[in-house]
Specification:
- By secondary structure, the protein is α/β, with parallel strands linked by helices.
- Helix content is 39%, strand content 20%.
- It has helices spanning 24-35, 51-60, 85-90, 109-119, 136-148, 160-170, 183-192, 235-242, 251-266, 272-284; strands at residues 10-16, 39-45, 65-68, 82-83, 95-99, 102-106, 128-132, 152-157, 175-180, 195-198, 223-226, 246-248.
- Strands 2-1-3-5-6-4 form a 6-stranded mixed beta sheet. It has a 6-stranded parallel beta sheet with strand order 9-8-7-10-11-12, sandwiched between helices.
- 43% of the residues are buried.
- Residues 70, 133-138, 157-159, 162, 181, 199-202, 204, 227-229, 250, 253-254, 257 line the site of NADP nicotinamide-adenine-dinucleotide phosphate (NAP).
Length: 285
């Protein structure tokens, strides 16, 4: 965004429901301003019934690219001409680009997650990773972990069947164990893992007093990752810091998946620091 919207301004945006609280407009518009690119990022609330019409209509109206969020990430595949291999395997798209007149789907969530760990000096290769949760975020994280060469993933989820379905999907990529979410299974799995990742909504604003892991189970040798970025420091991360663990918040994943979308649309290197600062300023406000 160069300051004003002109006839030449390229529009990119986000489709989802809801989109009102998304931080993506904040981080992308900060990046466009910083690089003085003639782009603007706009959120579009799209009801599931109108998904296909909205995607076609927005691209017919000249939009340069889209992010896709809940609840459209899976169903949007049917609206596209082509889906890249990783997004196809995952069955979920979060970024759409128009390439040679064709709508092409990508998924930057998993790579963004791994990049956010690398940025914090966390190497997942050969590690046993405890993933708490088995929803959409857990799926993206698990595929990325499998591709990045972890030794084993232990899924602990309130609804065991959901984790078992996920295990079936990634069984040929990585060794997987599934357990119900109880204090006993958490205690047992925390003893044999090196990295713990909360992919549940437990601890997210406004229920910030909740935590998926009792603090007394955390040991200093663990790296504790929380995908939640609101609040930036969840009760889980506070307890992990007190216990002497290395901690990683969800902000990095948010920024790096956005940076990868930015690069797909513009062909420019994303200013990750600027995007992080913009998100922090908004979250701290
Ligand atoms: P989702 O598909 O709805 O999955 C929610 C998960 O949370 C499920 O495993 C669910 O268990 C579990 N859960 C919910 N309430 C629970 C409770 N009271 N006790 C125990 N488990 C509970 O959501 P999602 O899209 O995966 O998102 C999950 C979290 O990741 C959110 O906080 C989201 O903000 C965050 N996220 C962050 C980023 C990022 O860029 N940092 C990206 C994506 C998502 P059941 O299966 O039993 O229902």
């Amino acid at each position: 965004m160069t300051g004003s919207i002109l006839g030449t301004t390229k529009v990119v945006g986000l489709i989802g429901s809801p989109v009102e609280h998304s931080l993506s407009p904040v981080i992308h518009n900060a990046a466009f301003r910083h690089l003085q690119l003639d782009y603007v990022y706009v959120p579009f609330p799209v009801h599931p019934d109108g998904l296909a019409r909205a995607v076609r209509g927005l691209f017919q109206a000249g939009i340069a690219g889209l992010n896709v969020t809940v609840p459209h990430k899976e169903r949007v595949l049917d609206c596209l001409d082509r889906v890249d291999h990783y997004a196809q395997v995952l069955g979920a798209v979060n970024t759409i680009v128009k390439e040679d007149g064709q709508l092409v789907g990508y998924n930057t969530d998993g790579p963004g997650f791994i990049q956010s760990l690398q940025a914090e000096g966390v190497d997942v290769r050969g590690k046993t990773v405890l993933v708490i949760g088995a929803g959409g975020a857990a799926r993206a994280v698990a595929f990325a972990l499998g591709q990045a060469g972890v030794r084993e993933i232990i899924f602990v989820n309130r609804t065991v069947e959901r984790a078992q379905n996920l295990k079936r999907e990634i069984d040929d990529l990585v060794q997987v164990e599934v357990l119900p979410l109880t204090p006993e299974t958490l205690q047992k799995s925390l003893q044999c893992c090196q990295i713990v990742i909360n992919t549940t909504t437990v601890g997210m604003y406004p229920h910030t007093d909740n935590t998926p892991v009792p603090g007394q189970l955390l040991q200093p040798r663990l790296t504790v990752v929380d995908l939640i970025y609101n609040p930036l420091e969840t009760r889980l991360l506070r307890a992990a810091k007190r216990a002497g663990c290395k901690t990683v918040s969800g902000l990095g994943m948010l920024v790096y998946q956005g940076a990868a979308s930015f690069e797909l649309w513009t062909g420019k290197t994303a200013p990750v620091g600027v995007m992080t600062d913009a998100a922090l300023a908004k979250l701290n406000r």
